[in-house]
Amino acid sequence: MAHSKPIVLVVEDEALVRMAIVDRLEEEGFLVLEAANADEALKILVNNLNVRLVFTDVDMPGTMNGIKLAAAVRDRWPPIKIVVTSGYKHVKLDEIPAQAEFVPKPYNADRLINAFRRLTD
Amino acid sequence: MLTSQQPMFIAWGPDRTMLYNDGYAPMCTNRHPWALGKPFAEVWADIIADVGPIMDAAYAGVPTYMDDIEFQMVRHGRTVETHFSFGYTPVHDENDQVAGMFCTALEITAEVVAAKSRTRELDRLRALLEKAPSFMAVLHGPEHRFEITNAAYRQLIGHRDVIGKTVREALPEIEGQGFYELLDGVYSTGQTFIGRSMEIDLQQTPDGPLQKGFLNFVYQPMYDDAGQITGIFVEGNDVTDLKGAELALREAMSVQDTLTGELQHRIKNSLAMVGAIASQTLRGEDIADRRALFDSRLSALATAHDILTNSTWTTASLRDVVEGALAPHIPSEDRVTLEGIEIDLNPKQALSMALAIHELATNAAKYGALSTSEGRVLISWEFDPAGEKPVFLFKWAESGGPPVVVPSRTGFGSRLITKVLAADFEGKVSVEYRPEGLLCVLRSDTGCVTPDQNLAKRA
Fold first, then answer.
1. Closest CA to B233 of B254, B251, B218
2. Do A16 and B265 lie within an 8 Å CB cutoff?
3. I need a surface site. Which of A70, B75, B297, B421 has the fewest CB within 10 A?
4. What is the pLDDT of residues B135-149, one digit of tens each?
5. Which chain B residues touch A105 with a CB distance below 8 Å?
6. How far, in Å, CA of B18 to CA of B59, rounded?
7. Please, which pLDDT band fits residue B189 given cuts at 50, 70 and 90?
């Protein structure tokens, strides 16, 4: 491993929400990359091969929502762990790719961090 | 001639003496057999005024053929209406003189009476149906020939003259829409057909284009006394308007669903923002102070929400957002000055601007220009037209306050301003601790703020 800290990519269009979770994750010892939409996220993933986990919101502006992003990540970078979050009740769990986890919004940051630790261990 | 079933007689000689066959006898009713060998004028005294001239013509050498002649004839002592179709043919003798005449006749009274009663029935039906609010038509025979249409039906088909025409001749535009076949089916099977909200492309104005409509209707077979299908009764209503209303309602309900979904999303989003503020605020020891700070941050968010709700979450005026966020912090009117044109913010920008102004104002009240009685804040914004695209510039400039101290650590406020505000405006934010006071500048040259619209609005 080039880096001892696990690298997490946070994809969230609401900057305030993104900032809060990024701050928490940094405090908890993660190296965090940020993206405001799926397109930005894919660019980051192409240039950062050590990302261990993608944490993405579902409803975002741009060409892809979080579900499609999750599918694309599963397809192109199979080892990357995926956690999907949404405030929408209507997200169907079967739309989320295999071995990706779903966390409803608003989420409990402590629980989220435990899940991230488990997944990046 | 005598044994023929075809009714015939001859009148012979100057007396026009009658000789007839068995077929003719029933026409004579109670005159038979007395009439045999009697002069024509005597036998038919009751109708001689009508028939005499025709007979005279035959004797004058002029033949006559008539499809239907009506006589008021005395039969069994009563005057009754009778109908005949007949031909009178002169018969010449060897000297080429008219010696008599030959007649073939057919009594058609029963047929004529039946036809008349049917016409009367149709007339009565026509009068009955004419003013009915639903459209109605009577189609006769296997080709569905129009016999009756009421006013509503004529309105439906654009007042075309269809009586006597078959439905295929009368309404050629509905070919291929299935209606001919339905009529054929009803006529051949006797099964009533009920159509509900059936779509039809129909010419509804004279020489007009085809119009789409929706009809509720029934095709009901009509029977004669013998139980044979003779035609189809058509009755129905144009429900195009209802259908339109139904579609509009369905659309409204789908919009409602979308709105509910959108609302749910916004609420969840707002809760996520509140959670983010809470996790950023409620850290450390002095919980009472932090709780107050939390409340004031939520209050800034709520004020921005109110402004957005006024525009049903489309846009918010920058000035309104700034004033709303400042309101709890301004000690007196003249301490804070706002300078800028009317600009609309999107909901995201409005919320982060409100939170940013709240942080700046809280900081100014605690450590900066608003912590003394002298200090002032100038909040200004403009579009800098230099450069390719106009650059949106927003400044918070403090002056006249206590000596400026650069804070030892970056708190929520400064992170909010440099990260969140910058992200939501797709721009950059700088915070400068100048000796005369804090200066915070937001620059955005992307399309996020829409200068063209806003400049146009100012004009």
1. B218
2. no
3. B75
4. 999 999 999 999 999
5. 268, 271-272
6. 14
7. very high
Residues of chain B in contact with residue A18, where contact means CB-CB under 8 angstroms, are: 423
The DSSP code sequence of B199-261 is EEEEE-STT--EEEEEEEEEEEEEE-TTS-EEEEEEEEEE-HHHHHHHHHHHHHHHHHHHHHH
Interface probe for B, chosen from A12, A16, A113 (most Cβ of B below 10 Å), is: A16
Judge whether B236 and B216 are in contact, CB under 8 Å. Answer: yes
Task: Give me the phi and psi of B68, to 5 degrees please.
Answer: -150, 115
Among the partner-chain residues B261, B268, B419, the one whose CB lies closest to the CB of A19 is: B419
- How many angstroms separate the CA atoms of B101 and B402, rounded? 143
Query: What pairs with residue A21 in β-bridges?
Result: none
| pLDDT-derived band at B459, boundaries 50, 70, 90 | very low
Residue B278: what residue type? Answer: A
CB-CB contact of B392 with B451 (8 Å): yes
Tokens of B352: 């982060």
Q: Which of B267, B269, B276 sits opposite A20 (nearest CB)?
A: B276
- The domains of chain B, with CATH numbers, are 8-107 (3.30.450.20), 114-238 (3.30.450.20), 303-458 (3.30.565.10)
Report the candidate in B371, B349, B346 with the shortest Cα–Cα distance to residue B453.
B346
Helix (H, G, I), strand (E, B) or coil at B382: strand
CB < 8 Å to A19, chain B: 276, 280, 415-416, 419-420
Q: Note whether B275 contacts A15, CB cutoff 8 Å.
A: no
Looking at residue A89, what is its pLDDT? 61
Q: Is A15–B352 a contact, with Cβ atoms under 8 angstroms apart?
A: yes
Q: Report the C-alpha gap between B305 and B386 in whole angstroms.
A: 34
Among candidates B350, B345, B341, B346, which has minimal Cα distance to B457?
B341
Q: Quickly list DSSP for A39-57.
A: HHHHHHHHH-TTEEEEEEE
Give whole-number Cα distances, B418 to A60, B25, B444, in Å: 22, 122, 13
The CA-CA-CA angle for residues B73, B78, B82, to 5°, reads 30
Structural domains in chain A plus CATH codes = 7-120 (3.40.50.2300)
Detail the DSSP E strand segments found in chain A.
Answer: 7-11, 31-35, 51-57, 81-86, 100-104
Position B13: which residue type? Answer: G
**So what's the pLDDT on residue B448?**
58
Q: How far is A51 from chain B (nearest CA, A)?
A: 22
Q: With an 8 Å Cβ cutoff, is A103 touching chain B?
A: no
